[in-house]
Write a structure and sequence with these properties.
Blueprint lengths: L1 E12 L2 E12 L3 E5 L6 H9 L5 E7 L2 E2 L6 H4 L2 E4 L13 H11 L5 H11 L16 H13 L5 E5 L7 H18 L2 E5 L3 H7 L2 E6 L2 E7 H5 L6 H11 L1
Parallel strand pairs: 3-8, 3-9, 6-7, 7-8
Antiparallel strand pairs: 1-2, 1-4, 4-5, 9-10
Helix pairs in contact: 3-4, 4-5, 5-6
Length: 243
């Protein structure tokens, strides 16, 4: 059983189709990247898997369960998303404790205090952060909280939408190391959206290159590191990163 299966996935915003006939299978425990220029449909695919892009056709399955359109609690307990902007994704007037407890309340789960303490420890934050507000944290600390919130329901799949691009370079490395450790310790599957090919090389096993809403190439990261990408557009992306 794969962690994620996409079959003939088309996604539209109004009358504009932005993702075309995407077929993709991601194995359990794999870390997979979607790369391409802005507007190529990468983040839109993540939003559809998470239930945030309702206008799609085709089939989406997570951990063997087909997802319906819109909110699907059976799927949301298995797949969670971490957004690019750690400040914008946290409510400014809610404490970290409240932000982390909210998914537990929605799903009717108990032992909330113990779960919050445990997940803060998992992401490398001590308990003094628990009752602070987002504006009292640094960007890296806020992103750790965003990752902690995604972990609250013990998902099997994490959708990562440019999770380090809004952070300073030194902090980016800390968050990438954290994500690598969490994947190893908790057996997580990652689907990462990024334009940063060095991040892909560090964190991922395979990648799909997207152009104008279509997948033009799927390759192992070993091929990326060896600069053995077959499509001209893929090679252009690689050359732009190196330049």
């Amino acid at each position: 059983m794969n962690a994620i299966d996409l079959q003939n996935l088309d996604i539209s915003y109004g009358d504009t189709k932005v993702v075309h006939a995407v077929n993709l299978s991601i194995a359990q425990g794999e870390s997979f990247a979607l790369v391409g220029e802005s507007g190529s449909g990468k983040s839109t695919i993540l939003r559809a898997i998470a239930g945030l892009a309702p206008d799609w056709t085709g089939a989406i399955s997570v951990m063997g369960k087909p997802r319906s359109h819109g909110v699907d609690r059976a799927v949301s307990s298995q797949v969670q998303m971490v957004f690019q902007d750690p400040y914008g994704s946290l409510h400014p007037r809610k404490t970290i404790d409240a932000a982390l407890s909210e998914p537990l309340a929605i799903h009717g789960l108990g032992n909330r205090g113990e779960r919050v303490e445990a997940v803060l420890s998992d992401v490398g934050l001590d308990q003094r952060f628990r009752f602070r507000f987002p504006h009292q944290l640094s960007g890296g600390q806020r992103q750790r909280v965003a990752i902690a919130r995604a972990l609250m329901l013990k998902p099997k799949v994490m959708l990562l939408d440019e999770p380090t691009s809004a952070l300073d370079v030194s902090v980016q490395a800390e968050i990438l190391n954290l994500l690598k450790r969490l994947r190893r310790e908790q057996g997580l599957t990652y689907l990462l959206v990024t334009h940063n090919l060095p991040v892909v090389s560090f964190l991922c096993d395979r990648l799909a290159v997207m152009q104008r809403g279509r997948i033009v190439e799927i390759a192992d990261v070993a091929n990326l590191k060896a600069r053995h990408l077959s499509e001209p557009y893929s090679r252009e992306l690689l050359a732009a990163t190196e330049g």
